[in-house]
Structures are given as C-alpha cells and as structure tokens.
Specification:
By secondary structure, this protein is of the alpha/beta class. The chain has helices spanning 106-112, 130-140, 162-169, and strands spanning 2-5, 11-15, 18-22, 39-41, 54-56, 60-64, 67-74, 82-89, 92-96, 117-121, 144-148, 180-181, 193-194. It has a domain at 58-194: Ribonuclease Z/Hydroxyacylglutathione hydrolase-like (Metallo-beta-lactamase, Chain A). Helix content is 13%, strand content 30%. α2 crosses α3.
C-alpha cells in the first residue's frame, strides 16, 4: 500500500485499485477533499460530502472493499470522545488514533497492542504531546510509527515540531518523504521504523 499525509490526521491510502481516506478535513475554501475514495473513515460531524464512498463514522465493525475495520470510541475527560480506527490492509494491521488527548483505556489498548503500523498524534495542543506519544508507542510496540498532528511547513504552528517526538522516542527517522510505500514482506522484523511524511494536497 501507499500512504500520503495531507496534514493534521488526514491520510489517504492507495491499496491496489481502491483508495481509503482517514480523517479528511475541509478548509473554509474547500468543502471536500481533492482526493476521491471508495472508503472513508471520519468523524460523524465532518460535514463533508464524499459522494458514493462508503463512510465509516461510528463505533463498530465493518468489512468494505476487502478492508476489515474496527472502530473504537475512546472517552477523554475534556472532550466528547475520540474515534480510533483499527483496520487491516494487504495483510498489514494498522491503527489510527485520531485526535487522541488522553491515556487509552485498558480495553482499547489490548486491541491495539502489536499493530504493524501506528498513526499517532504527537504535537500537543488538544492531542498527545511528544513525551506522551513516545510512551504510548513503547506500550503498543508497533513495527512502523507514523506521527501526525505536529507543526510542519506552516501547518499547525501552535503545536510541537515533530523533532520533539523524534527525540522522545529515540529512533532516528529516514528523511521525510512525500509518500510511503510498504508491503507486508517489507515490515521490519526486529527494529521499529519511524516514518516522517511531508504534508501535501491532491493525489
């Protein structure tokens, strides 16, 4: 599969002939994402028209376009709650933690433990900060870590830069990429890989 980051917690994932969107957002000038998809995982209040795409926006279990998805609700004291997306694509298990701002419940943590690819907020200001995120990564023990919700290239200037998370985690990342391609056979066997992506619009 091939992963693109579009800022904040918005990712698009190409999987053979299908495309998945996770947490897409619309700016004041743009009422729908510039990328089209067959499957969308999003907050029920996103307020975006995704056309004919199948939209997953509530807790539960789903199987759409050969993607097995489990959506968990994580309650936090200072918010109405956050959706966590667990999904399997091309024999790789993934977890997207959304705008997580509090410790994960024991029940949810048990379901996330040992995923292959973890998308995690790291920039603070309403989401996990660098230190909290690094501690959670060490609990979950994913093979690949993809940070999100951080200050980069003019985006989210009130949040911490990703370098804070890199230092807290203690893993040297490869240079930031525009996209990340990976197959199940390419997952690291022993080491953990930290992947930094450049945010961009479009396909």
């Amino acid at each position: 599969m091939q992963i693109h980051w579009h800022g904040k917690s918005f990712f698009s994932i190409d999987m053979r002939e299908k495309k998945l969107l996770i947490d897409p957002f619309a700016s004041s000038e743009q009422k729908s994402p510039r990328v089209e998809a067959q499957l969308v995982m999003t907050d029920p209040d996103a307020g975006i028209d995704f056309g004919d795409a199948f939209v997953v926006c509530e807790a539960g279990e789903y199987e759409v376009h050969e993607v097995f998805t489990s959506v968990l609700r994580q309650k936090c004291e200072k918010s109405i709650g956050n959706l966590i997306y667990l999904f399997e694509v091309e024999n790789m298990s993934c977890a997207h933690l959304g705008a997580l701002s509090c410790p994960i419940s024991k029940e949810n943590l048990e379901k996330i433990m040992g995923v292959d690819i973890l998308f995690i907020p790291v920039g603070g200001k309403g989401v996990l900060g660098a230190k909290e995120a690094a501690e959670l990564v060490n609990l979950i023990e994913p093979r690949v870590v993809v940070p999100m919700y951080f200050y980069a290239a003019g985006l989210d200037p009130d949040r911490e830069p990703v370098e804070n998370f890199v230092r807290a985690l203690g893993i040297a990342p490869s240079p930031a990429e525009d996209k990340f391609k990976i197959t199940a056979s390419q997952l690291p066997a022993d080491d953990r890989r930290l992947v930094l992506l450049n945010a961009h619009e479009g396909k």
